[in-house]
Protein backbone atom coordinates (compact mmCIF):
# COMPACT_ATOMS: atom_id res chain seq x y z
CA UNK A 1 0.00 0.00 0.00
CA UNK A 2 2.96 2.33 0.61
CA UNK A 3 3.96 2.15 -3.04
CA UNK A 4 0.40 2.75 -4.21
CA UNK A 5 0.07 5.83 -1.97
CA UNK A 6 3.35 7.22 -3.34
CA UNK A 7 2.36 6.59 -6.94
CA UNK A 8 -1.01 8.34 -6.51
CA UNK A 9 0.09 11.05 -4.09
CA UNK A 10 -1.29 13.82 -6.28
CA UNK A 11 -4.49 11.98 -7.21
CA UNK A 12 -6.92 13.04 -4.47
CA UNK A 13 -9.79 10.92 -5.82
CA UNK A 14 -7.73 7.73 -5.92
CA UNK A 15 -6.40 8.32 -2.40
CA UNK A 16 -9.95 8.82 -1.15
CA UNK A 17 -11.02 5.55 -2.80
CA UNK A 18 -8.07 3.71 -1.19
CA UNK A 19 -8.92 5.16 2.23
CA UNK A 20 -12.59 4.22 2.06
CA UNK A 21 -11.75 0.67 0.93
CA UNK A 22 -9.15 -0.08 3.61
CA UNK A 23 -9.15 2.64 6.27
CA UNK A 24 -6.87 1.07 8.88
CA UNK A 25 -4.16 -0.25 6.48
CA UNK A 26 -4.23 3.10 4.65
CA UNK A 27 -3.72 5.03 7.88
CA UNK A 28 -0.89 2.74 9.00
CA UNK A 29 0.89 2.94 5.66
CA UNK A 30 0.46 6.71 5.42
CA UNK A 31 1.76 7.24 8.97
CA UNK A 32 5.03 5.52 8.10
CA UNK A 33 5.33 7.54 4.88
CA UNK A 34 4.43 11.00 6.17
CA UNK A 35 7.89 11.92 7.62
CA UNK A 36 9.22 11.63 4.04
CA UNK A 37 6.27 13.55 2.54
CA UNK A 38 6.02 16.40 5.03
CA UNK A 39 5.64 19.71 3.19
CA UNK A 40 3.54 18.28 0.36
CA UNK A 41 0.17 20.12 0.62
CA UNK A 42 -1.93 17.01 -0.08
CA UNK A 43 0.15 14.89 2.30
CA UNK A 44 -0.20 17.55 5.01
CA UNK A 45 -3.96 17.60 4.45
CA UNK A 46 -4.22 13.80 4.80
CA UNK A 47 -2.05 13.88 7.93
CA UNK A 48 -4.41 16.37 9.57
CA UNK A 49 -7.43 14.38 8.47
CA UNK A 50 -6.16 11.01 9.67
CA UNK A 51 -4.90 12.34 12.99
CA UNK A 52 -7.82 14.59 13.88
CA UNK A 53 -9.07 13.65 17.32
CA UNK A 54 -12.57 14.54 18.36
CA UNK A 55 -13.19 15.39 22.00
CA UNK A 56 -16.42 13.40 22.02
CA UNK A 57 -16.87 9.64 22.06
CA UNK A 58 -18.06 8.16 18.77
CA UNK A 59 -20.72 5.53 19.45
CA UNK A 60 -20.91 4.45 15.83
CA UNK A 61 -24.12 3.82 13.96
CA UNK A 62 -27.34 2.74 15.66
CA UNK A 63 -27.17 -0.59 13.81
CA UNK A 64 -23.62 -1.29 14.98
CA UNK A 65 -24.46 -0.39 18.58
CA UNK A 66 -27.53 -2.66 18.45
CA UNK A 67 -25.40 -5.56 17.17
CA UNK A 68 -22.91 -5.03 19.99
CA UNK A 69 -25.71 -5.05 22.59
CA UNK A 70 -27.20 -8.24 21.10
CA UNK A 71 -23.74 -9.85 21.05
CA UNK A 72 -23.16 -8.92 24.70
CA UNK A 73 -26.52 -10.43 25.67
CA UNK A 74 -25.74 -13.64 23.75
CA UNK A 75 -22.34 -13.95 25.47
CA UNK A 76 -23.94 -13.42 28.87
CA UNK A 77 -26.60 -16.05 28.20
CA UNK A 78 -23.96 -18.58 27.06
CA UNK A 79 -21.99 -17.91 30.26
CA UNK A 80 -25.10 -18.67 32.32
CA UNK A 81 -26.09 -21.86 30.45
CA UNK A 82 -24.98 -24.22 33.26
CA UNK A 83 -27.33 -22.45 35.68
CA UNK A 84 -30.14 -22.18 33.12
CA UNK A 85 -29.96 -25.78 31.81
CA UNK A 86 -28.56 -27.61 34.83
CA UNK A 87 -25.26 -28.49 33.13
CA UNK A 88 -22.35 -29.39 35.39
CA UNK A 89 -20.03 -26.38 35.61
CA UNK A 90 -16.89 -28.54 35.80
CA UNK A 91 -17.89 -30.08 32.46
CA UNK A 92 -19.12 -26.94 30.70
CA UNK A 93 -16.63 -24.18 31.44
CA UNK A 94 -13.28 -25.91 30.71
CA UNK A 95 -14.59 -27.07 27.32
CA UNK A 96 -16.64 -24.04 26.31
CA UNK A 97 -14.97 -21.01 27.87
CA UNK A 98 -13.76 -19.81 24.47
CA UNK A 99 -17.21 -20.15 22.91
CA UNK A 100 -18.65 -17.58 25.33
CA UNK A 101 -16.74 -14.73 23.72
CA UNK A 102 -14.89 -15.50 20.48
CA UNK A 103 -17.82 -16.44 18.18
CA UNK A 104 -19.52 -13.13 19.06
CA UNK A 105 -16.36 -11.13 18.30
CA UNK A 106 -15.82 -13.16 15.11
CA UNK A 107 -19.35 -12.38 13.95
CA UNK A 108 -18.82 -8.68 14.74
CA UNK A 109 -15.65 -8.39 12.65
CA UNK A 110 -17.08 -10.53 9.85
CA UNK A 111 -19.99 -8.08 9.63
CA UNK A 112 -17.85 -4.97 10.08
CA UNK A 113 -15.27 -6.01 7.47
CA UNK A 114 -17.92 -7.29 5.04
CA UNK A 115 -16.29 -10.72 4.81
CA UNK A 116 -17.50 -12.80 1.87
CA UNK A 117 -20.31 -15.30 2.49
CA UNK A 118 -18.11 -18.28 1.65
CA UNK A 119 -15.51 -17.24 4.21
CA UNK A 120 -18.21 -16.66 6.83
CA UNK A 121 -19.50 -20.18 6.16
CA UNK A 122 -15.96 -21.53 6.59
CA UNK A 123 -15.49 -19.72 9.93
CA UNK A 124 -18.91 -20.87 11.13
CA UNK A 125 -18.10 -24.45 10.08
CA UNK A 126 -14.75 -24.44 11.91
CA UNK A 127 -16.37 -22.99 15.04
CA UNK A 128 -19.17 -25.55 14.97
CA UNK A 129 -16.69 -28.38 14.38
CA UNK A 130 -14.70 -27.22 17.40
CA UNK A 131 -17.84 -26.99 19.54
CA UNK A 132 -19.00 -30.50 18.65
CA UNK A 133 -15.53 -32.02 18.99
CA UNK A 134 -14.60 -30.58 22.39
CA UNK A 135 -17.96 -31.50 23.91
CA UNK A 136 -17.82 -35.05 22.53
CA UNK A 137 -14.50 -35.90 24.19
CA UNK A 138 -14.76 -38.50 26.97
CA UNK A 139 -15.20 -36.98 30.42
CA UNK A 140 -12.10 -38.64 31.90
CA UNK A 141 -11.21 -37.59 35.45
CA UNK A 142 -7.50 -37.09 34.71
CA UNK A 143 -6.81 -36.56 31.02
CA UNK A 144 -3.83 -34.52 29.83
CA UNK A 145 -5.11 -34.56 26.25
CA UNK A 146 -8.49 -33.18 27.34
CA UNK A 147 -6.81 -30.30 29.19
CA UNK A 148 -4.52 -29.62 26.22
CA UNK A 149 -7.44 -29.71 23.82
CA UNK A 150 -9.46 -27.31 25.97
CA UNK A 151 -6.56 -24.85 26.26
CA UNK A 152 -5.72 -24.97 22.56
CA UNK A 153 -9.41 -24.68 21.60
CA UNK A 154 -9.31 -21.12 22.97
CA UNK A 155 -6.30 -20.41 20.72
CA UNK A 156 -8.06 -22.11 17.79
CA UNK A 157 -11.04 -19.75 18.21
CA UNK A 158 -8.65 -16.81 18.58
CA UNK A 159 -7.15 -17.61 15.17
CA UNK A 160 -10.64 -17.77 13.63
CA UNK A 161 -11.25 -14.32 15.12
CA UNK A 162 -8.00 -13.18 13.50
CA UNK A 163 -9.22 -14.47 10.14
CA UNK A 164 -12.45 -12.45 10.55
CA UNK A 165 -10.37 -9.39 11.44
CA UNK A 166 -8.03 -9.76 8.46
CA UNK A 167 -10.70 -11.11 6.10
CA UNK A 168 -8.35 -13.21 3.99
CA UNK A 169 -5.75 -15.99 4.13
CA UNK A 170 -2.99 -14.25 2.18
CA UNK A 171 -0.23 -12.51 4.11
CA UNK A 172 -1.59 -9.00 4.56
CA UNK A 173 1.06 -7.50 6.84
CA UNK A 174 -0.89 -4.38 7.80
CA UNK A 175 -4.04 -6.25 8.76
CA UNK A 176 -2.24 -9.03 10.63
CA UNK A 177 -0.18 -6.54 12.60
CA UNK A 178 -3.38 -4.56 13.08
CA UNK A 179 -4.90 -7.67 14.67
CA UNK A 180 -1.98 -7.98 17.09
CA UNK A 181 -2.31 -4.29 17.92
CA UNK A 182 -6.06 -4.74 18.41
CA UNK A 183 -5.37 -7.41 21.03
CA UNK A 184 -3.13 -5.04 22.96
CA UNK A 185 -5.61 -2.18 22.67
CA UNK A 186 -8.57 -4.29 23.78
CA UNK A 187 -6.61 -5.57 26.81
CA UNK A 188 -5.96 -1.95 27.84
CA UNK A 189 -9.59 -0.92 27.31
CA UNK A 190 -10.97 -4.06 29.00
CA UNK A 191 -8.75 -3.46 32.02
CA UNK A 192 -10.04 0.10 32.36
CA UNK A 193 -13.65 -1.04 32.09
CA UNK A 194 -13.10 -3.77 34.70
CA UNK A 195 -11.53 -1.26 37.09
CA UNK A 196 -14.51 1.09 36.63
CA UNK A 197 -16.93 -1.84 37.01
CA UNK A 198 -15.14 -2.99 40.16
CA UNK A 199 -15.51 0.46 41.71
CA UNK A 200 -19.21 0.55 40.76
CA UNK A 201 -19.76 -2.95 42.20
CA UNK A 202 -18.06 -2.03 45.46
CA UNK A 203 -20.20 1.09 45.82
CA UNK A 204 -23.39 -0.82 44.97
CA UNK A 205 -22.74 -3.64 47.44
CA UNK A 206 -21.73 -1.13 50.12
CA UNK A 207 -24.87 0.96 49.69
CA UNK A 208 -27.16 -2.08 49.93
CA UNK A 209 -25.25 -3.32 52.98
CA UNK A 210 -25.91 0.01 54.72
CA UNK A 211 -29.67 -0.54 54.48
CA UNK A 212 -29.49 -4.15 55.65
CA UNK A 213 -29.35 -6.12 52.36
CA UNK A 214 -26.45 -8.53 51.74
CA UNK A 215 -26.54 -8.85 47.95
CA UNK A 216 -22.99 -10.08 47.41
CA UNK A 217 -23.82 -13.65 46.38
CA UNK A 218 -26.74 -12.63 44.14
CA UNK A 219 -24.75 -9.76 42.63
CA UNK A 220 -21.69 -11.81 41.72
CA UNK A 221 -23.58 -14.91 40.54
CA UNK A 222 -26.04 -13.01 38.35
CA UNK A 223 -24.98 -9.43 37.58
CA UNK A 224 -21.17 -9.77 37.46
CA UNK A 225 -21.13 -13.23 35.88
CA UNK A 226 -23.61 -12.19 33.20
CA UNK A 227 -21.93 -8.85 32.39
CA UNK A 228 -18.29 -9.98 32.49
CA UNK A 229 -18.27 -11.51 28.95
CA UNK A 230 -19.66 -8.23 27.63
CA UNK A 231 -16.59 -6.29 28.77
CA UNK A 232 -14.19 -7.39 25.96
CA UNK A 233 -17.04 -6.93 23.46
CA UNK A 234 -17.60 -3.37 24.65
CA UNK A 235 -13.83 -2.83 24.73
CA UNK A 236 -13.59 -4.04 21.12
CA UNK A 237 -16.41 -1.76 20.03
CA UNK A 238 -14.88 1.29 21.69
CA UNK A 239 -11.37 0.68 20.30
CA UNK A 240 -12.73 0.18 16.78
CA UNK A 241 -15.03 3.22 16.92
CA UNK A 242 -12.60 5.45 18.82
CA UNK A 243 -8.99 4.43 18.08
CA UNK A 244 -7.80 7.64 19.74
CA UNK A 245 -8.95 6.35 23.15
CA UNK A 246 -5.96 4.03 23.49
CA UNK A 247 -4.05 5.14 20.41
CA UNK A 248 -1.52 7.01 22.53
CA UNK A 249 -1.63 4.70 25.55
CA UNK A 250 -0.61 1.48 23.77
CA UNK A 251 2.62 2.87 22.27
CA UNK A 252 3.60 4.26 25.68
CA UNK A 253 2.96 0.87 27.30
CA UNK A 254 5.00 -0.87 24.60
CA UNK A 255 7.93 1.54 24.96
CA UNK A 256 7.78 1.49 28.77
CA UNK A 257 7.42 -2.23 29.32
CA UNK A 258 9.95 -3.48 26.76
CA UNK A 259 13.04 -2.20 28.66
CA UNK A 260 11.50 -3.13 32.02
CA UNK A 261 10.81 -6.68 30.86
CA UNK A 262 14.37 -6.89 29.49
CA UNK A 263 15.83 -5.92 32.88
CA UNK A 264 13.45 -8.30 34.69
CA UNK A 265 14.30 -11.19 32.39
CA UNK A 266 18.06 -10.76 32.79
CA UNK A 267 17.69 -10.43 36.57
CA UNK A 268 15.49 -13.53 36.64
CA UNK A 269 18.05 -15.63 34.74
CA UNK A 270 20.82 -14.52 37.10
CA UNK A 271 18.64 -15.21 40.15
CA UNK A 272 17.73 -18.63 38.77
CA UNK A 273 21.42 -19.59 38.61
CA UNK A 274 22.03 -18.53 42.22
CA UNK A 275 18.79 -20.06 43.55
CA UNK A 276 19.74 -23.56 42.45
CA UNK A 277 16.31 -24.11 40.88
CA UNK A 278 16.15 -25.38 37.35
CA UNK A 279 13.44 -26.51 34.91
CA UNK A 280 15.14 -29.86 34.30
CA UNK A 281 13.88 -31.60 37.42
CA UNK A 282 11.08 -29.30 38.57
CA UNK A 283 7.91 -29.68 36.46
CA UNK A 284 6.09 -26.69 37.97
CA UNK A 285 9.14 -24.49 37.44
CA UNK A 286 9.27 -25.57 33.80
CA UNK A 287 5.60 -24.64 33.36
CA UNK A 288 6.21 -21.17 34.84
CA UNK A 289 9.30 -20.83 32.65
CA UNK A 290 7.28 -21.55 29.51
CA UNK A 291 4.51 -19.16 30.59
CA UNK A 292 7.18 -16.48 31.03
CA UNK A 293 8.52 -17.27 27.55
CA UNK A 294 5.08 -16.89 25.92
CA UNK A 295 4.38 -13.66 27.82
CA UNK A 296 7.68 -12.06 26.81
CA UNK A 297 7.24 -13.16 23.20
CA UNK A 298 3.77 -11.56 23.19
CA UNK A 299 5.29 -8.29 24.44
CA UNK A 300 7.91 -8.40 21.66
CA UNK A 301 5.28 -8.97 18.97
CA UNK A 302 2.98 -6.29 20.39
CA UNK A 303 5.89 -3.82 20.55
CA UNK A 304 6.85 -4.54 16.94
CA UNK A 305 3.21 -4.13 15.87
CA UNK A 306 3.20 -0.72 17.54
CA UNK A 307 6.63 0.16 16.15
CA UNK A 308 5.47 -0.56 12.60
CA UNK A 309 2.96 2.31 12.89
CA UNK A 310 5.30 4.93 14.34
CA UNK A 311 8.75 6.33 13.79
CA UNK A 312 11.17 4.47 16.06
CA UNK A 313 14.42 5.72 17.52
CA UNK A 314 17.51 3.52 17.47
CA UNK A 315 17.58 2.84 21.26
CA UNK A 316 14.05 1.42 21.10
CA UNK A 317 15.04 -0.98 18.33
CA UNK A 318 18.09 -2.02 20.37
CA UNK A 319 15.84 -2.81 23.34
CA UNK A 320 13.66 -5.04 21.14
CA UNK A 321 16.77 -6.74 19.70
CA UNK A 322 18.25 -7.44 23.15
CA UNK A 323 14.87 -8.61 24.47
CA UNK A 324 14.53 -11.01 21.54
CA UNK A 325 18.06 -12.32 22.08
CA UNK A 326 17.50 -12.92 25.80
CA UNK A 327 14.17 -14.59 25.03
CA UNK A 328 16.00 -16.98 22.69
CA UNK A 329 18.22 -17.94 25.64
CA UNK A 330 15.11 -18.54 27.77
CA UNK A 331 13.61 -20.60 24.97
CA UNK A 332 16.81 -22.61 24.62
CA UNK A 333 16.82 -23.45 28.33
CA UNK A 334 13.16 -24.46 28.22
CA UNK A 335 13.67 -26.55 25.09
CA UNK A 336 16.69 -28.37 26.52
CA UNK A 337 14.73 -29.06 29.73
CA UNK A 338 11.86 -30.58 27.75
CA UNK A 339 14.23 -32.78 25.72
CA UNK A 340 15.92 -33.86 28.97
CA UNK A 341 12.60 -34.83 30.54
CA UNK A 342 11.56 -36.74 27.42
CA UNK A 343 14.86 -38.67 27.35
CA UNK A 344 14.54 -39.50 31.07
CA UNK A 345 10.82 -40.23 31.46
CA UNK A 346 9.48 -40.69 27.94
CA UNK A 347 7.06 -38.83 25.69
CA UNK A 348 3.73 -37.69 27.12
CA UNK A 349 0.99 -35.50 25.57
CA UNK A 350 2.09 -32.50 27.65
CA UNK A 351 5.76 -32.88 26.74
CA UNK A 352 4.94 -33.36 23.05
CA UNK A 353 2.73 -30.24 23.01
CA UNK A 354 5.30 -28.08 24.81
CA UNK A 355 8.15 -29.44 22.66
CA UNK A 356 6.34 -28.58 19.42
CA UNK A 357 5.38 -25.11 20.66
CA UNK A 358 8.92 -24.33 21.84
CA UNK A 359 10.48 -25.42 18.55
CA UNK A 360 8.08 -23.21 16.59
CA UNK A 361 8.67 -20.27 18.92
CA UNK A 362 12.45 -20.69 18.70
CA UNK A 363 12.39 -20.65 14.90
CA UNK A 364 10.15 -17.59 14.92
CA UNK A 365 12.31 -15.74 17.45
CA UNK A 366 15.45 -16.46 15.44
CA UNK A 367 13.82 -15.03 12.32
CA UNK A 368 12.57 -11.94 14.17
CA UNK A 369 15.92 -11.37 15.90
CA UNK A 370 17.77 -11.64 12.59
CA UNK A 371 15.56 -8.96 11.06
CA UNK A 372 15.87 -6.72 14.14
CA UNK A 373 19.65 -6.99 13.83
CA UNK A 374 19.37 -5.93 10.20
CA UNK A 375 17.24 -2.94 11.26
CA UNK A 376 19.91 -1.91 13.79
CA UNK A 377 22.54 -2.28 11.06
CA UNK A 378 20.31 -0.09 8.84
CA UNK A 379 20.04 -2.78 6.19
CA UNK A 380 16.23 -2.90 6.38
CA UNK A 381 13.32 -1.21 8.18
CA UNK A 382 10.97 -2.18 11.00
CA UNK A 383 8.24 -3.12 8.52
CA UNK A 384 10.28 -6.16 7.48
CA UNK A 385 10.24 -7.33 11.12
CA UNK A 386 6.47 -6.94 11.11
CA UNK A 387 6.27 -8.98 7.91
CA UNK A 388 8.40 -11.70 9.53
CA UNK A 389 5.98 -11.86 12.45
CA UNK A 390 2.85 -11.83 10.31
CA UNK A 391 3.77 -14.51 7.75
CA UNK A 392 4.58 -17.02 10.52
CA UNK A 393 1.23 -16.77 12.35
CA UNK A 394 -0.49 -19.52 10.26
CA UNK A 395 2.22 -21.95 11.41
CA UNK A 396 0.99 -21.53 14.98
CA UNK A 397 -2.58 -22.07 13.77
CA UNK A 398 -1.70 -25.42 12.22
CA UNK A 399 0.07 -26.55 15.40
CA UNK A 400 -2.86 -25.44 17.56
CA UNK A 401 -5.21 -27.41 15.28
CA UNK A 402 -3.06 -30.54 15.62
CA UNK A 403 -2.96 -30.34 19.43
CA UNK A 404 -6.67 -29.55 19.69
CA UNK A 405 -8.07 -32.20 17.38
CA UNK A 406 -5.41 -34.89 16.89
CA UNK A 407 -3.65 -35.22 20.25
CA UNK A 408 -6.67 -36.78 22.03
CA UNK A 409 -6.83 -39.40 19.25
CA UNK A 410 -3.08 -39.96 18.94
CA UNK A 411 -2.60 -40.47 22.69
CA UNK A 412 -5.81 -42.40 23.29
CA UNK A 413 -7.48 -39.68 25.43
CA UNK A 414 -4.79 -40.11 28.11
Automatic annotation (TrEMBL):
Q: Which controlled-vocabulary keywords does the entry list? A: Membrane, Transmembrane, Transmembrane helix
Which superkingdom heads the taxonomic lineage of this protein's source? Bacteria
Q: Which residues are listed as membrane-spanning?
A: 65-85, 92-111, 117-134, 146-166, 186-211, 223-240, 252-273, 285-305, 317-340, 352-373, 393-413
Keyword field contains Transmembrane helix: yes
- Which protein is depicted? Membrane protein
Q: Which organism is it from?
A: Flavisolibacter tropicus
Amino acid sequence: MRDEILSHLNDARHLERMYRTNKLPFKQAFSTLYPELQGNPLADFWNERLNYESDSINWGTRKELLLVIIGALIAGIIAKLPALLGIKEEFFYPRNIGFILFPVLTAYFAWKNKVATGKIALMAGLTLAGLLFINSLPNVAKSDTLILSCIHMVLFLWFILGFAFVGEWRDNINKRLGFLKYNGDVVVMTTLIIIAGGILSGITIGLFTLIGFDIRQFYFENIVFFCLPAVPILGTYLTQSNPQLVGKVSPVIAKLFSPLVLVMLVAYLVAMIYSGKDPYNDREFLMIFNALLIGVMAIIFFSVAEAANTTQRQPEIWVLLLLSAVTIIVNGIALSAILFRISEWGLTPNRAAVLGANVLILIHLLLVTTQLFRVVAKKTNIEVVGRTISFYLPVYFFWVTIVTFLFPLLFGFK
